[in-house]
Amino acid sequence: QVQLVESGGGLVQAGGSLRLSCEASGRIFSSYTMGWFRQAPGKEREFVATINRSGGDTYYADSVKGRFTISRDTRDNAKNTVYLQMNSLKPEDTGVYYCAERTSYGLGYERSHYDYWGRGTQVTVSS
Question: What DSSP string describes 7-59?
Fold first, then answer.
């Protein structure tokens, strides 16, 4: 059973930065693509960024392109970690950020592309 645990959320002023982490444990051999999604109050969960297994291919939502960077550390298969560096944060970036794992090849940019989800970490950007 794969478990995903997010951390690094918090309260930050507009223009500030945060770095989110997601540690995956369990059947790591099945891990291929990882992704980040977010959900603002009263809104649908939306795609933010995705990265393939090697870390060599990424894709971002237009709303975060140029401000957010997704990366992953696979040096230790026991701690497969993916990061989301968020710079120049805006109030509209506020929401719960979820990490997700896709157990097949190819980047994923829709919720249905992912098989496992974390519980989320809250990010609040004040104006």
Answer: E--EEEETT--EEEEEEEES-GGG--EEEEEEE-TTS--EEEEEE-TTS--EE
Provide the token pair at 109: 């940019």
In whole angstroms, give the CA distance from residue 31 to residue 102: 7
Q: Are 84 and 49 in contact (CB under 8 A)?
A: yes
Given a contact cutoff of 8 angstroms between Cβ atoms, the answer to whether 83 and 97 are in contact is no
Residues ≥6 apart with Cβ < 8 Å to 100: 4, 34, 35, 36, 37, 108, 111, 114, 115, 116, 117, 118
Query: What is the rounded distance in angstroms from the CA atom of residue 35 to the CA atom of residue 83?
Result: 10
The residues with which 17 forms a beta bridge, in sequence order, are none
Which pair of structure tokens corresponds to residue 4?
Answer: 């995903």
Alpha-carbon dihedral of residues 115, 122, 59, 5, nearest 10 degrees?
A: -40
pLDDT in tens, 73-118: 867 554 678 999 999 999 999 999 999 999 888 899 999 999 999 9
Tokens (6 digits) for 39: 């959900």
